[in-house]
UniProtKB/TrEMBL annotation, chain A:
Gene3D superfamilies, A to Z: Amidase signature (AS) domain
Source organism of the structure: Equus caballus (Horse)
Gene: QRSL1
TM annotation in the entry: none
Keyword list, A-Z: ATP-binding, Ligase, Mitochondrion, Nucleotide-binding, Protein biosynthesis
Entry-linked NCBIfam families: gatA (TIGR00132)
Protein name as annotated: Glutamyl-tRNA(Gln) amidotransferase subunit A, mitochondrial
Pfam families from the UniProt entry: Amidase
EC number of this enzyme: 6.3.5.7
Subcellular localization, as worded in the UniProt entry: Mitochondrion
Subunit (UniProt): Subunit of the heterotrimeric GatCAB amidotransferase (AdT) complex, composed of A (QRSL1), B (GATB) and C (GATC) subunits.
TrEMBL record, chain B:
Residue numbers spanned by region Disordered: 29-48
Pfam families attached to this UniProt entry: GatB_N, GatB_Yqey
Keyword terms: ATP-binding, Ligase, Mitochondrion, Nucleotide-binding, Protein biosynthesis, Transit peptide
One example of a Gene Ontology biological process annotation: glutaminyl-tRNAGln biosynthesis via transamidation
Name under which the protein is recorded: Glutamyl-tRNA(Gln) amidotransferase subunit B, mitochondrial
The encoding gene: GATB
Catalytic activity field: L-glutamyl-tRNA(Gln) + L-glutamine + ATP + H2O = L-glutaminyl-tRNA(Gln) + L-glutamate + ADP + phosphate + H(+)
Limits of the Asn/Gln amidotransferase domain: 406-505
EC number(s) recorded for this UniProt protein: 6.3.5.-
Length: 540, 509
């Protein structure tokens, strides 16, 4: 094996986990952007069965890699993200690349412009590997309800999970027992988790970035509302949507946030003040921190494993000298129903533009404009989307507006005020579970409908969106089944840096294990035809 | 069906008479008061003797009409309300459409500062209270030229409220009596214009042009303080002059920059207001007056024949001269208003509330805009009356005719003739001539300088003692004009010869 190749192997082994380290390898010339890009493209092909990507932008990525390579050769790298493969959820507009929202309505729609966040990543030299799968229009919590089919959780094929399953006697048909990723940014989570890229953009309206991050053993950051531009993000709920960041470590999330954060003249809801790029400090002393444990989050539905990890984490902070106190967010229990009203109302409004006239799907019926609208929308949207449009329009009717929408807005204010009260009492950050349990098998998941699932799964994450607060899910440990469990930190508005600093300290303490996909590759040689490539990239 | 059509013959005239009476009643009742006191005023006068010139049919005097207006004025700005696309009349279809205007998913509105300033200026000129905080809302309905499926408007908290529009009316014999009237301005709101639908019935197609989609509109809502077509038309004309003076809208009705919807109802004075209808999209002052008068008469006929007025939207057919019910989108529907989540509240400041060290580019200072307000038409007219001893009605005519005031002022600059004489020449002779020839002031063959020279000559009595050749010319043109005009006015004939005189003067010099 040539020397360079060996270097490459070395760097992948030690640092494949973090973009920040690969970036160093790129700078030192141990690996070129093109090599890195091709590596990721081959993994994308090998992991196609995960259904993480809707569109793989191979040509674009290779061309960007070529450009990046030229810059590195001249010593003019654009920064930490130059030459780093990334993926973008398929509800962010990408110029010249199909953007579907996993809906028939937007099949074949090619936006003529880039979302601001996409443009910012490209301006930093990042390589766009493709557009990732999601629930249709991001409405869901499993990444199971898009027209391109469900996303499979890479952990279903991990050594850690498989070995645990083998121990159990009731080992059924392995292939039918794959796990969901969570959602709705499940494609992005699977893409990062399976090493097809180093970071991915998700979107987070009620937990859509943090939920799949927790299920896929990743860091999932929902920045403060207004810190990152939504221009180009196809909206779910404008007043709650935030572009989310999925990475394999906290430092990577901080790098990406540093690139994305700041005012955008195209999004009037972004902050005016300039945001300085930042490097996360390594926190050594947590004794001055005050960690809040919201008592309302201790629900009966919470799995005992998650519950015990949560208290273990609290103990960890306490043992290191931090003040850990129980706090109350009394209006949290109303969050779900309040979210339902506000979300569906905005959905009803936002979806009104999909009428088949300017872009997207149009039916063949041309009896009248009204008939065309009706058929187009019936064919274009799935049941979940249509259901939300219907209920949203109901809540917005003149006779219902006061009783539903206005009340929900008031409750939202109460929920937000709960957080203000807690933070004013001296709490630096809240520590909560991200999800009720670890990822469940698809067959299990689909026993309940989308609405029930969404209501259950967003329970710990939604309130942060209501209040516009930054929140991050950090993987803590594997469950008894060998599946990742993440915990969530919620910070003060626009204190994203402080939040990530604490998350980084926590990450360092818990030493969450790297996913071992080697097992899968040995077992499924039919899936991974080229074992050599696989072993180069993923050997521990 | 025949009956209302027959009554159509001279409804305008009948109402013009009734309306003059209504005007004086109104003035005595409550010039600026609320609806209830106004009604009381009306009912008390209802017993007084009515029109003297023409005896009304029995029972007709029992009806009073109430007219409110919603006026949409396109803001004169370089770019649209929420996007960077240009604003231009008659550009090639769909050539001025940004991604936002076409409602591409993921695009967001960005408020145009110029449009906000225009709204504040207009609000100040109409004596409104400017809201330092206003909000934007979405109004939903499906229509092909509304790409987002909703219009962004200001339903809950508009930018300006509680103003007044003072307009004046010439009444009495020879229309020489000027009556001031006030229509309360309920609110002024900023909103988006829609695109245009062009229906091709032959091919049963609808073509959509989005050039207009997203252009900034000022919706000015006038309370139902008017009582006939002429009043409404006069109020609209005054608003038009104000907008043009401010430069906030070109307010050209023919180009659709000013569109009027009228809410009309009739009732017995002293009783609650009747069910109203809305007549939409009136795009000329003449049709506005006609449509309103027709609709008033129609409602009266309907009620007198035992019928019922439906709360409906109607359109005016200018060819038939009548209003007809609209059956499409504008029927009764729930607009499902919702706050626009992509636009934060619009905050305005005054000198007191202006944050220290605020970037002038980032904030709008109401007081600074107030200081920079141009002269309003009412002030201009007052000045004309004071400066030149002009009759008030003459000052109205000077302002009402596009370009006439400027013409007058230019003549004044170059002549020593008496202002009264100039006024008379401009208003009677020149304007009469232009109307007869169907010309706009800008198309006048006589320039202000030429008219000034003529007046100077007359002033010096130079014309009468001028050379025979000149006289011959004038006489010659007199003879030509006699053939052309049915009832030649000596001055008009003289004016026609101004052309020749101007030529001669050039020769002399």
């Amino acid at each position: 094996m040539p020397l360079k190749r060996m270097h490459f192997q070395f760097c992948l082994q030690t640092s494949y986990k973090a973009a920040i380290k690969v970036s160093a390898a790129l700078k030192q010339g141990h690996i070129t952007p093109t090599e890195l890009c091709q590596k990721c493209l081959s993994i994308i092909k090998k992991t196609k069965f995960l259904n993480a990507y809707i569109t793989v932008s191979e040509e674009v990525a290779l061309k960007q890699a070529e450009e990046s390579e030229k810059r590195y050769k001249k010593g003019h790298s654009l920064g930490d993200l130059d030459g780093i493969p990334i993926a973008v959820k398929d509800n962010f507009s990408t110029s010249g690349i199909e953007t579907t929202c996993a809906s028939n309505m937007l099949r074949g729609y090619v936006p003529p412009y880039n979302a601001t966040v996409v443009q910012k990543l490209l301006d930093q030299g990042a390589l766009l590997m493709g557009k990732t799968n999601l629930d249709e229009f991001a409405m869901g919590s499993g990444s199971t309800d898009g027209v391109f089919g469900p996303v499979k959780n890479p952990w279903s094929y991990s050594k850690q999970y498989r070995e645990k399953r083998k121990q159990k006697s009731h080992c059924e048909n392995e292939d039918s027992n794959w796990l969901i990723t969570g959602g709705s940014s499940g494609g992005s989570a699977a893409a990062v988790s399976a090493f097809t890229c180093f970071a991915a953009l998700g979107s987070d309206t009620g937990g859509s970035t943090r939920n799949p991050a927790a299920h896929c053993g990743l860091v999932g950051l929902k920045p403060s509302y207004g810190l990152v531009s939504r221009h180009g993000l196809i909206p779910l709920v404008n007043s709650m949507d935030v572009p989310g960041i999925l990475t394999r470590c906290v430092d990577d999330a901080a790098i990406v946030l540093g690139v994305l954060a700041g005012h955008d003249p195209k999004d009037s809801t972004t902050i005016q003040d300039p945001v300085k790029p930042f490097v996360l400090p390594s926190l050594t002393d947590v004794s001055k921190l005050c960690i809040g444990i919201p008592k309302e989050y201790l629900t009966p539905e919470l799995s005992s494993e998650v519950r015990s990890l949560w208290s273990k984490a609290a103990n960890l902070f306490e043992s290191e000298g931090a003040k850990v106190i129980e706090v109350s967010l009394p209006h949290t229990s109303y969050s779900i129903v309040c979210y339902h009203v506000l979300c569906t109302s905005e959905v009803a409004s936002n979806m009104a533009r999909f009428d088949g006239l300017e872009y997207g799907h149009r039916c063949d019926i041309d009896v009248s404009t009204e008939a065309m609208y009706a058929a187009t929308r019936r064919e274009g949207f799935n049941d979940v989307v249509r259901g939300r449009i219907l209920s949203g329009n109901f809540f917005l009717l003149k006779e219902n507006y006061e009783n539903y929408f206005v009340k929900a807005q008031k409750v939202r204010r109460l929920i937000a005020n709960d957080f203000v009260t807690v933070f004013n009492s001296g709490v630096d950050v809240l520590l909560t579970p991200t999800t009720l349990s670890e990822a469940v098998p698809y067959t299990e998941f689909i026993k309940e409908d989308n609405r029930t699932r969404s209501a259950q799964d967003d329970i710990f994450t939604q309130a942060a969106n209501m209040a516009g607060l930054p929140a991050v899910s950090v993987p803590m440990a594997l469950s008894n089944q060998g599946l990742p469990i993440g915990l969530q930190f919620i910070g003060r508005a626009f204190c994203d840096q402080e939040l990530l600093t604490i998350a980084k300290w926590f990450e360092k303490q818990v030493q969450f294990p790297v996913i071992q996909l080697q097992e899968l590759m040995d077992d499924c040689s039919s899936v991974f035809e080229n074992e050599k490539l696989a072993s180069v990239s993923l050997k521990q | 069906m025949a009956a209302p059509m027959l009554r159509l013959c001279c409804p305008g005239r009948r109402w013009a008479l009734a309306c003059i009476d209504g005007c004086s009643r109104h003035r005595r009742g409550a010039p600026n008061g609320c609806t209830s006191s106004r009604r009381r005023g009306q009912s008390s006068v209802a017993q007084q003797p009515f029109i003297t010139a023409q005896k009304p049919r029995k029972g007709e005097h029992e009806w009073a009409a109430v007219v409110g207006l919603e006026i949409h004025a396109q803001i004169s700005s370089k770019s649209k309300l929420f996007s960077g696309s240009q604003v231009h009349f008659a550009a090639p279809p769909n050539s001025l459409v940004s991604f936002f205007d076409a409602s591409l998913p993921g695009t967001l509105p960005v408020l145009n500062r110029r449009c906000v300033e225009a709204a504040v200026m207009t609000g100040l000129a109409l004596n409104c209270r400017i809201n330092k905080k206003s909000l934007f809302d979405r109004k939903h309905y499906f229509y092909a030229d509304l790409p987002a499926g909703y219009q962004i408007t200001q339903q809950r908290l508009p930018i300006a409220v509680n103003g007044s529009l003072v307009y004046s009316f010439c009444a009495g014999k020879n229309r020489s009596q000027v009556i001031n009237k006030t229509a309360r301005v309920k609110q002024i709101q900023l909103e988006q214009d829609s695109g245009k639908s062009l229906h091709d019935d032959l091919r049963s197609q609808t073509l959509i042009d989005l050039n207009r989609a997203g252009v900034g509109l000022l919706e000015v809502v006038l309370e139902p303080d008017m009582s006939c077509g002429e009043e409404a038309a006069t109020a609209v004309r005054e608003l038009q002059l104000i907008l043009q003076a401010l430069g906030t809208s070109q307010a050209n009705m023919a180009e659709g920059q000013l569109r009027v919807d009228a809410n009309i109802s009739v009732h017995h004075p002293g009783e609650p207001l009747g069910v109203r209808t809305e007549v939409k999209n009136l795009n000329s002052a003449r049709f506005l007056a006609k449509a309103i008068d027709y609709e008033i008469q129609r409602q009266i006929n309907e009620l007198e024949n035992g019928g019922e007025i439906l709360n409906e939207t109607r359109s005016f057919d200018s060819k038939l001269g009548c209003t007809i019910p609209m059956r499409d989108k504008e029927g009764k529907q729930d607009y499902r208003f919702m706050p626009e989540p992509n636009l934060p509240p619009l905050l305005l400041y005054d000198t007191e509330s202006l944050p220290a060290g605020a970037d002038p580019q980032q904030v709008i200072d109401i007081d600074r805009i107030r200081e920079q307000l141009p002269e309003l038409p009412s002030v201009t007219r007052e000045k004309l009356v004071q400066q030149y001893g002009m009759l008030p009605e003459h000052s109205f005519t000077l302002l009402n005719e596009v370009g006439l005031l400027e013409f007058f002022q230019n003549v004044m600059k170059e002549t020593r003739a008496e202002p009264k004489k100039v006024t008379s020449w401009v208003l009677n002779t020149l304007l009469g001539f232009l109307k007869q020839q169907n010309l706009a002031v800008s198309e006048s063959p006589v320039t202000p300088s030429a008219l000034a020279e003529l007046l100077n000559l007359l002033d010096r009595k130079a014309i009468s003692s001028s050379a025979a050749k000149q006289t011959d010319c004038i006489l010659h043109s007199h003879q030509q004009c006699v053939k052309l005009l049915v009832s030649p006015h000596p001055r008009r004939l003289l004016l026609l010869s101004v052309f020749l005189i101007a030529d001669i003067l050039v020769g002399v010099k």
